[in-house]
Amino acid sequence: MTWGACLLLSVAMKRRHSVGVLVVSLVIAAFGASSTGCSDNPVGRICDLGTATPQAGEVVVASPSLDCVSRTCLRVPKSRELPPGSKFPEGNNGLCTAECSTDADCDRVPESPCILGFTCGMAVTVGPFCCRNFCICKDYIVIPDTGPDAGHLGVPKACDPSDKQNACCNLAGRAGNTAEYPLCKT
Question: CA 155 to CA 125: how far, in whole Å?
Answer without folding.
Answer: 10
